[in-house]
């Protein structure tokens, strides 16, 4: 190993240690926000079973008994499918805790009028 490679390895170890110290020094509020983000599944245009597996994984991680599905636009129907597949096939005792709907205004790309996009959040509880 050349001196330059050894020096860059030593520098990366120091950076990794500093990052670990910063992470350990996080406030409890920051940590609780990060754990909440772990229990959120953003639904897109992949097959529903991909998101069902993400929901099952989130429940089995033991971080809590609540998982939230978030979707916008055309993905809303997929999010509903994911909630129903999870409830009917995998977790019979799971309940739908809350459903919230809304509208998000998307700024135009090139002039024109802003677009409205529907949003939905489905909270699932064990």
Topology summary:
Blueprint: H1 3-24, H2 28-38, E1 40-42, H3 48-60, E2 66-72, H4 76-90, E3 95-106, E4 115-125
Parallel strand pairs: 1-2
Antiparallel strand pairs: 2-4, 3-4
Helix pairs in contact: 3-4
Structure characterization notes:
With 126 residues, this protein is an alpha+beta fold. The chain has two domains: 1-35; 39-125, Translation Initiation Factor IF3. It is 48% helix and 26% strand. A four-stranded mixed beta sheet has the order 1-2-4-3. The radius of gyration is 21 Å and the shape is elongated. It starts with a helix and ends with a strand.
Largest sheet: 4 strands, mixed
The helix tally amounts to 4
Q: How do the strands of the widest beta sheet line up side by side?
A: 1-2-4-3
Q: Share of helix among residues?
A: 40-55%
The structural domain count equals 2
- Note the beta-strand portion: 25-35%
Instruction: Give the CATH class of the largest domain.
Output: Alpha Beta
Which oligomerization state do the chains in this entry correspond to? single chain
Arithmetic mean of pLDDT: 79
Observed structural traits:
single chain, about 130 residues, alpha+beta, Translation Initiation Factor IF3, four-stranded mixed β-sheet, disordered N terminus
